[in-house]
Amino acid sequence: MKEYILKTNSDGSKITVHDVQMVLLEMLKDIDKICQKHDIPYFLVGGSCLGAVRHEGFIPWDDDADIGMLYEDYLRFLDVVKTELDTENYYFQTFDTHKEYNVFIPAMKFRKRGTYVKEANTLLRNRCKDGDGLFIDVFIIDYIDERKWVDVLCRLKATLYLVVVTLIENLGINPYRLKKRFVRFVRRYSRKSRERGSSLIGFDLSWVFNSPFHPVVYKKDDIYPLQYHKFVDTQLPIPRVPKSLLDAEVSVNHMSYPPEKMQHPKHIVDVNLTSEEA
User: What are the LicD/FKTN/FKRP nucleotidyltransferase domain coordinates in residue numbering (predicted)?
Assistant: First the structure.
């Protein structure tokens, strides 16, 4: 197996993508224990879901992990981690608990204590003061309006929010009230979509990094009921019809490997997996 090196320490030791994946795997197992204990449905999304389907584990060069859950399940998960989380090993960051949290990244970063990661993204960097531990992204999956023109207009509005909020934040100012207004807009959109009886779900409106004309959307019936699938040495949940999710989130050609020049880690600039590493 090819070795993807993320960092060479001052003593000559190396941190590889595989090393990071083994930490992420333990984190995923612990999240799964929490969710199974409290009957909270969640599932692998993005590259993590693709890894499960195509590799029965991580994509060999993937240096992060992503899960998703419906908004109502996210609220239950948030309540649980506020009160029952193993705080010696983990902490988490969300806009619900951190006013400085960026509202245009996944709703929660579930982080590992005693580790450090610097992400490649600088404009949307972590602004929370309690740490930059290795993390799992938790995406909110919510209802999407079946009327295409309504959805496109709302996504364009969300993109405008992104531009304004990011400009202000990069001036060193936290536009908290504007971010709260944006979050209310996102929740209202999905609530109205659900009330209209929409059969579609996907990444909620705060995720603006796909084209407004081609968002991450799939039929709810293609996701639920979830199934547990082999993932390295364990089983983790994926959609009932993973192809539907992967076509929307990755590519309709997701089972084909990308060109070799694209087979490299994309998210981590710097990393420490223990406090002793240089």
Answer: 35-247
Residue 166 covered by a domain: no
Q: 55: which residues sit within 8 A by CB, 6+ positions away?
A: none
- Evaluate whether residue 182 is within a structural domain: no
> Element (H or E) spanning 184, and its range?
helix 176-195
Q: Can you tell me the distance from the alpha carbon of 262 to that of 113, in angstroms, rounded to the nearest whole number?
A: 31
Convert the pLDDT of each residue in 164-221 to its tens digit: 999 999 899 999 999 999 999 999 999 999 999 999 999 999 999 999 999 999 999 9
Percent of the residues in the chain that have a pLDDT greater than 90, as a whole number: 94
Task: Kindly state whether residue 67 falls inside one of the protein's structural domains.
Answer: yes
What is the count of structural domains for the chain?
1
* Domain extent for 117: 5-142+216-272
- CB–CB of 81/109 below 8 Å? no
Residue 210 in domain: no
What is the pLDDT at residue 121? 80
Q: Which residue has the tokens 């400009």?
A: 167
Residue 231, helix vs strand vs coil: strand
Structure tokens at 109: 């970063």
DSSP 8-state assignment for residue 136: E
- Letter for the amino acid at 123? L
pTM over 0.85: yes
DSSP code for 206: T
Question: Average of pLDDT values for 61-82?
Answer: 97
Question: In this structure, what CATH number is given to the domain that contains residue 71?
Answer: 3.30.460
Classify burial at 214, counting beta carbons within 10 Å of its beta carbon; exposed 0-12, middle 13-18, buried 19 or more: exposed
Specify the 3-state DSSP secondary structure of 271.
strand
User: Nearest CA to 179 among 123, 98, 119, 243?
Assistant: 98
- Amino acid sitting at position 232: V
